[in-house]
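[Automated response] Your request has been received and processed.

Submitted sequence:
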Amino acid sequence: MEKEALKRIFEFLEEKEGKTHKDKGSLKWKIIFNEPITKEDLNVKGGLNLSNKNITSLPEGLKVGGALFLGDLKITLLPEGLEVGGWLDLQYTKITSLPEGLKVGGSLYIKNTKLTKYLDNELREMVKPGFIKGKIFRD
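Generated structure:
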């Protein structure tokens, strides 16, 4: 379903039935529906699941306190300054490299990406001065 049609359905339900979508106003909502993102939106306290959405990019300076799920996105690059407190799921994405300064407090999942061609130590070097604290999973 087209994003705008879906958004109109949510707006209709809110107007006619007083039902607001649980994600309305969140960073997830704003990314999906291309709404303006504030600096405060970039600091997500918990996890963020954007898997299987029609998203091609993420905002610079994004900080996620928990896990970040990006599986099966058409995304090709991660933004500068990305920090993830938990694990980072990049499975089935088109990402070919990791940005310098990437911080991952948990594990990294890279199944079915071009990142699998790199050894663990090469991936960890790629992100310096950032880090990947946990394991790197390819399967």
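Summary generated for your ticket: The chain has two domains: 1-36, 39-137. The radius of gyration is 16 Å.
If you did not submit this request, please reply to this message.
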